[in-house]
Structures are given as C-alpha cells and as structure tokens.
Write a structure and sequence with these properties.
Blueprint (H helix, E strand, L loop, with lengths): L1 H27 L11 H6 L3 E2 L3 E2 L6 E3 L4 H6 L7 E3 L6 E4 L7 E6 L1 H4 L9 H9 L2 E6 L5 H11 L7 E7 L2 H5 L18 E4 L5 E4 L16 H7 L3 H5 L7 H6 L4 H15 L1 H24 L1 H4 L1 H18 L2 E7 L2 H6 L10 H10 L4 E4 L1 H4 L16 H40 L1
Parallel strand pairs: 6-7, 6-8, 8-11, 11-12
Antiparallel strand pairs: 1-2, 3-4, 5-7, 9-10
Helix pairs in contact: 5-18, 6-14, 11-12
Length: about 425
Amino acid sequence: MTVLFFSITIILLWGIVELSSWVVLKYFWRDKVEFPAVSQELLDKFSSWDPILGWCNKPNLRKQDRSDRKIADSDKTKVFPYYTTDSNGSRTPFEPENPTISIACYGDSYCMCREREDDQTWPWYLGETLGARVSNYGVGNYGLDQALLRIERDFDRDPADVVILAVTSVTVARMISVYRHYLEPGNILAIKPRFIFNKDKSLKLVHYPFKKKNQLRDLSAFQEHFRKYDAHYEKWIAGKPQFPYFLSLLNKGNRQHINKLFLRILFRLNKKLHKFLSTRIEEKERIRNIEYELSFWSSDCDIFISVLERFAALAKSRGFIPVFLLQHQKRFLDNVDHVSNDLAWKPILKRAGAQIDGLHVLDTFPWLYDVANRSSLYGSSHHSELGNRVVAHEIGEYIQKKIAPGLAKKDEHVKSREIEQGKLD
C-alpha cells in the first residue's frame, strides 16, 4: 500500500507540474505564430516589394522616415526626416559641377542613413569631402547578399569609379536568413534570397520564392522553403511546447519566458527588487542576443568571404574599385566588452583583406569605439549627423591616400591612349 500510495503521489505531482508547465508555455507562446496572417492592408503598405531582392527603395520617391517605431508611437510631436530617391532609386546623390571621381554606396540602413535628412548622410558628406559624385543605394534591413545582388542588377544604370559595400556587423546573421521572422519575430515581410554552397564550394543563389506580391498573403504555403534555407529556424522553434512540457519549459529557448514569469510574480511581492533584477535580466538577454548574432562570423565566415570574392570579381568585370565597409550598431559598441565573442568580425575582415585581391576593407569600430561621448555619434538607433560626419571623414581620408592616386594614374593612362589613338587616326 505504501509503495502504491507513493507511486500515485509521484504521478499526481508530476501531472500537476506537467499541467502547470503546459499552461505557462501556452500563455507565452500564444502570440508566437510561425506564419501570421498577412492582411491586404498590410500588403498594400508594402510598397517596396521587389520580385528579385525581396524589397528595394523605389525610384522618384519622397517618404517620411518613421523607422523608429517606438518614438513614432510615443512622441507625436517629433518631426521625422524625409528621404528622397532619384530616377535610379538612389537616395538624393551629392552632385558637384565638376566631380573628381564617382562613388556608389550600397548596403543596409546604416548606408542609407535612416533617421537623417538627405543631406545629413555619410555618402553626402563624403561627396562634400572629396568633391565627388556620390550616390546612395542603401536599403533598410538589407543583408550583404541583397546589397551585392542589387549592384549586379543596377550598377550599369549608374556606373561609378568606386563602389562601397557597407553593412553592419549583424550582416552575417542576415545573410543566412530567408524569413526574417525567425531572427526578428514580427518582421514577417522581410523575406529574401540568400547564397548557399554547392558541393564544390561554389556559390549557389537561393532565389526569392515569391513570383507575385499577392502570394505573401499565404506564408504557410512556403514553409518548406523557409525551414530548409533559414539557419535561424532551429533557434526560433527551440522550446516549442511539446511533451514532456516541464522539460520543454526548461529548454534554453524558453529561458526568457521563465524570466518574464518570475519578474511578474516578483513585481507583486517587491517592486524595488523587481526593478533591480529586471534591469539585470534584460541586460543578460541583450548580451545573449548579441552573442548569438555575432556567432555566425565564426560558423559562417566562408560564405561571407565567398560573397566578398564575388563582389571583387564583379569589380574587375565592370571596372570599378571595390570597398567593403563594416559599420556597427550602438548596442554592439556598448556591449562589446561584455560578450564572449567580442570583435568576432576582426579576424574575418583581416582574412578578407589578405585573401581577396583588389578589395579594400574598412571597419568603423576603431573610429567610433574610443570616442569619449559615443552617444553623440548615434540617434535613437542609427548614426547622428555627427556620427555620419565622422564616418565620411575617415572614408574620405582613406580614399584620398589609398585609392585616388591610383585612379589619377588610370585616368592619365586612358587619356594618353586616347591621344595616341587620335594621332594614329
């Protein structure tokens, strides 16, 4: 009887633990839908849809930049900047009367310089510094792969002497993504092409899967594609409620849910302790996310290098000088001393510079990290006007010392050949 009673008690206790775990998991996963519904209204607002790149700034556009949604929702008095594109889709280029050289910039939102007016971007300031014509083809949320594909598609519309491919340090995590919702929950329309390796280690392009924009209304129809080609699917699905629920609750994928539950209980018991611990827990969660994003510099460095090799090969075939520029979000600079994989990009950039012939590699980290008042270089999430000026100044100095002399010699050689040909004629 004692053994039977003990067994029944254990089963009942385990049943209670399992039921409680199931309730907790169901509560926190209630909004975590893998393929949320896409309304026609949302689809109509997605005006930047592109059948090759996923999305792209449209030509001849003037639009208010409300990219910082938190401020947009909380501060109704804030005056948001506008961005304007020309007939080629470039943000308003800097165009002096007699340009010394021409530069085209491609990349993500740090290249586009969101949160700033057209004449407050680092490509604009770079044009002022060098007396050069500088166009800006940056697009918000782009990965390195998308930016390169846009160069391949659009360069001939606006050829340049120098092409700067500028992205942030989260770019490798973006490169191995096709459905951004897995990496950034809620970003359901940021679906993109990506590169993978063939068996012989050559690059293979996994195309954007949607032929028509209206197909986005049914994301679940493409679930096999998303799950197969997006490297973040495993992280997203980690901790999904499954039996036994208690062990599922303890999965590291549900760590943040346990923390939230603990903090909610603590808030009712001790508000001061809650405030102290919530700050510490949020800080640890932020560092874990940064470590996750940076981890791909190590695990997927080969795909990064191969894409840059493709960029350099394109430069040779189209006759421009390739420059790769790595930029950094403020959250990375503020937490780089606390993460285990700090400066994870540094050896990879060094390898790229040494391995890829003709490629110039620049990193904004040493330009920004040691600045005494670092916060002055950033707005809410992108560079401030001052930050863009610093970036433009450093790039300008590099181009004047390392690139411009070679371009001058090239021009002299071309002119001498033209003169010689004229004499022969």
